[in-house]
Design a protein that fits this description.
This protein is α/β, with parallel strands linked by helices and 230 residues long. It has two domains: 104 residues, 2-Layer Sandwich (Zincin-like), CATH 3.30.2010; 97 residues, no CATH class. Helices cover 55% and strands 10% of the residues. It contains ten helices and four strands. Helix 5 crosses helix 6 and helix 8 packs across helix 9. The radius of gyration is 20 Å and the shape is globular. Bound molecules: zinc ion (ZN). Keywords: Signal.
Length: 230
């Protein structure tokens, strides 16, 4: 082959490899609550195929937020599963690579089902991909904060969240911590990606100092001061 042809073939191989990498994760979804009102609403207003698409989009989005362009950077996950089931009044939870979504919760959504459920799935998908969950029981707030930070960046903020600057302490978790992490990321783009990478070894307050040069207490005070002026 001429050099140009070799280059063309090499480019094609590169494209094929990239496609393989992107599709290396399988998304499996099922609904074991199809006989319930909530399960039926899920099938009608969201559906299994749409779930796969949302989980795939969410994973790509999370890898971008975490600055994990290649598979080698990520948690080694081949399959992400979603089961819609009767879990009482709980909204959702994730164990390992398995997301569990509450049928009763879906049945009770008063807003747009696609928007609300997508937001929950983005949050739960973060728990599949984030590092450091061995430390979850001791420092749940940082992991829930990062999960809601991704939901915030994906523009799936539900109506009940605090506004930016809201909340009493950085380690409240969820929306309060997500807003605070968004502030930290505004000080240094990629803060959350760096934090997630460090969490691989478990959580430490010192990560805030290492990444931003200030203690988490100082950052929180700066953050509250910024929003108390308006
Ligand atoms: Zn969570």
């Amino acid at each position: 082959m001429k050099l140009q042809q070799v280059a063309a073939v090499a480019a094609l191989v590169a494209v094929a490899l990239a496609a393989t990498t992107a599709s290396a994760v399988t998304f499996e979804v099922s609904n074991t609550a199809s006989s319930t009102a909530g399960g039926q609403r899920f099938d009608q207003a969201f559906g299994l195929d749409y779930s796969k698409q949302v989980l795939s989009d969410a994973s790509t989005f999370i890898w971008a937020i975490f600055n994990q362009p290649s598979e080698a950077d990520r948690r080694p996950v081949d399959t992400v599963t979603l089961v819609v089931e009767d879990i009482g009044e709980r909204i959702a939870f994730t164990i390992g690579n398995g997301i569990h979504l509450g049928a009763q919760y879906v049945g009770g959504i008063s807003g747009d089902v696609k928007t609300e459920v997508s937001g929950v799935l983005y949050h739960e998908a973060v728990h599949v991909w984030q590092w450091g969950l061995q430390d979850y029981d001791v420092h749940p707030w940082i992991f829930e904060g990062i999960a809601d930070y991704v939901r915030l960046k994906a523009d799936y903020v539900p109506g009940h969240w605090v506004a930016a600057g809201g909340g009493d302490k950085w380690d409240k978790g969820y929306d309060v911590t997500a807003r605070f992490l968004d502030y930290c990321d505004s000080l240094k783009a990629g803060f959350v990606a760096e934090m997630n990478g460090k969490l691989r070894d478990g959580y430490s307050d010192d990560y805030f100092v290492q990444i931003l040069g200030k203690s988490v207490e100082q950052l929180w005070n700066d953050y509250k001061a910024k929003y108390s002026q308006g």
